[in-house]
């Protein structure tokens, strides 16, 4: 009976004619948000300590791609664009997309509007392993960078995120039936333990180590280069490409775990897929950029409020919306206190907190 239900067309659960409308809506929402993202990328690429006009930007790209043989721009601006600014913008897009789609998928999985990657230990695990590497290696980070091991910290953070998430998932199966409530409680317990270990390591840190730990936890895209972009891209692309295929199951999960299972959703497989894909996106993002809060929490709420709760639209919109938000946030963080740079984690928290409170107030007002 379940196999037959799984093979039925989507119209079984939707009103006649809705799938076509929904696909069209997803297409147009993605197109509009994509245009906004492109505008944000161009804006971010032009703004900085060394400003680049739109005409100069076009000349730089056209000359590099062979569309023109005349270099009508300063060589310094071309170097800044290709080596410094464009990798940073690309990394902001990737990290924002990974955080946004992970937040939307986890909110759907836990059926909790305030769920994010901290619930399954991704952020806390990455922080703990990053602190351990800093404690053991801070005196030699410069030497390691020179011999090609500059990504030891990022690799350790990603491994920490993956291992902590795996521990939460396994404990939820050992201590219960692996339901979402059990996983949530295990996540809270493991996060508390990992946070205590991180606090202990921070307490034992020297002044130099403490400074490095603090700046890593505040989040920054200042170390962006093409190597970090290429390292993050495969993980974020996997999350962004494959997560929307789970939208139908997440839509059915709104009815409850038992009802979704009765309609043919394999809850064990769904939980595993969502957690793995979310960990890939968030783990790789945290590994290269540090802790950046509120993107995965606020962006899905914005998309849900603007375009509705359908997870197909929500996941796609959250990925693009996260990229837009983080691109703009990074542009502000590196220009608002120029020539210094404000850690992007501070900015997202300062802007995200009041906005999130407004969303909660607005939702409550609409229910009255």
UniProtKB/TrEMBL annotation:
TM helices/strands, residue ranges: 26-58, 79-106, 118-138, 150-169, 181-205, 226-246, 274-302, 314-336, 342-361
Full protein name: Iron ABC transporter permease
Topology class, membrane: Multi-pass membrane protein
GO molecular function: transmembrane transporter activity
GO CC entries: plasma membrane
Stretches assigned to coiled coil: none
InterPro entries given in the database record: ABC_BtuC-like, ABC_transptr_permease_BtuC
Subcellular locations according to the entry: Cell membrane
Family: Belongs to the binding-protein-dependent transport system permease family. FecCD subfamily.
BP term (GO), one: siderophore-iron import into cell
Keywords: Cell membrane, Membrane, Transmembrane, Transmembrane helix, Transport
Organism listed in the record: Dyadobacter psychrotolerans
Classification via Gene3D superfamilies: ABC transporter involved in vitamin B12 uptake, BtuC
């Amino acid at each position: 009976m379940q196999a037959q239900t799984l093979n039925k067309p989507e119209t079984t659960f939707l009103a006649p004619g809705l799938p076509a409308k929904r696909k069209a809506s997803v297409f147009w929402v993605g197109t509009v948000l994509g245009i906004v993202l492109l505008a944000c990328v161009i804006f971010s690429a032009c703004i900085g300590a060394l400003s680049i006009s739109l005409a100069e930007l076009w000349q730089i790209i056209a000359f590099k791609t062979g569309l023109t043989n005349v270099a009508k721009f300063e060589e310094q601006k071309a170097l800044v664009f290709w080596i410094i600014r464009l990798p940073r913008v690309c990394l902001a897009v990737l990290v924002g997309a990974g955080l946004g789609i992970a937040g939307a998928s986890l909110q759907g999985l836990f059926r909790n509007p305030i769920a994010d990657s901290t619930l399954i230990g991704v952020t806390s695990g990455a922080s703990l392993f990053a602190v351990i590497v800093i404690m053991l290696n801070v005196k030699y980070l410069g030497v390691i960078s020179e011999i090609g091991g500059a990504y030891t910290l990022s690799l350790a953070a990603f491994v920490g995120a993956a291992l902590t998430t795996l521990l939460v998932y396994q404990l939820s199966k050992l201590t219960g039936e692996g339901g979402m409530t059990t996983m949530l409680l295990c996540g809270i317990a493991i996060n508390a333990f990992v946070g205590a270990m991180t606090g202990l390591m921070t307490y034992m840190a020297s002044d130099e180590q403490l400074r490095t730990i603090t700046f890593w936890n505040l989040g920054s895209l200042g170390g962006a280069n093409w190597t970090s972009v290429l390292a993050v891209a495969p993980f974020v692309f996997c999350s962004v490409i494959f997560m929307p295929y789970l939208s139908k199951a997440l839509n059915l999960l709104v009815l409850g775990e038992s009802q979704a299972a009765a309609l043919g959703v394999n809850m064990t497989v769904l939980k595993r897929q969502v957690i793995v894909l979310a960990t890939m996106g968030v783990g790789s993002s945290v590994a290269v950029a540090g802790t950046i809060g509120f993107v995965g929490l606020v962006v899905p709420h914005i998309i849900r409020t603007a375009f509705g709760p359908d997870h197909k639209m929500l996941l796609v919109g959250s990925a693009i919306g996260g990229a837009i938000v983080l691109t703009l946030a990074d542009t502000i963080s590196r220009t608002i206190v120029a020539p210094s740079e404000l850690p992007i984690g501070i900015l997202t928290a300062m802007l995200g907190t009041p906005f999130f409170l407004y969303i909660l107030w607005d939702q409550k007002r609409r229910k009255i």
